[in-house]
Amino acid sequence: MTYSIIGSGLIGTAIARQFSRAGLDILIANRRGAASLDDLARELGPHIRPVPLAEALAADMVFLALPYDAIGDATVSVTDWQGRIVIDATNAIDFPGFTPRDLGGRPSSDIVAGTLKGARLVKAFNTLLAAILAKDPAEAPGRRVLFVSGNDEAANAQVAELIQKLGFAPIVLGKIAEGGRLQQFGGPLAAQNFIKAA
What we know:
alpha/beta, 10-stranded mixed beta sheet, 8 helices, 23% strand, 12 strands
């Protein structure tokens, strides 16, 4: 299983930090090119490898950790995801007001999934503030919670298993129309830091 992160902002860097902490290899790419990520790779160690965007998009499990409006441009080269898992860690936010985007009542991840033909899309890693996501997931008396929603049960299970490997406590909330609405920006689980007791 190969993993990659598209985006090297606060959320992408926090995810990379967790992979490094857990000793798991991951590729990372951004629109500025692999060389722009050399300092991050030096800081986080050998498990983080900067690559061109095309290489990151070819991984078995791809994290989208970039601005919501940048997803289309970043993924346009992939015409068929062929059943690969895409983790939607984005949030649909209107700036500068920092308010939820008006999506006509549709879950943001359903809109993302509609642009990624053949992808098994899972909503995860988007509810914690980046500074919290980057911290050690072990917090007394348990582990920090990450929520998972998706329309493919097997994909949800794979992402939940990865979350456990990273040291977090996964909670699967069901399909995007159910759990995804709770997770997206403006929903009741956004920016909440839950600890699952041991």
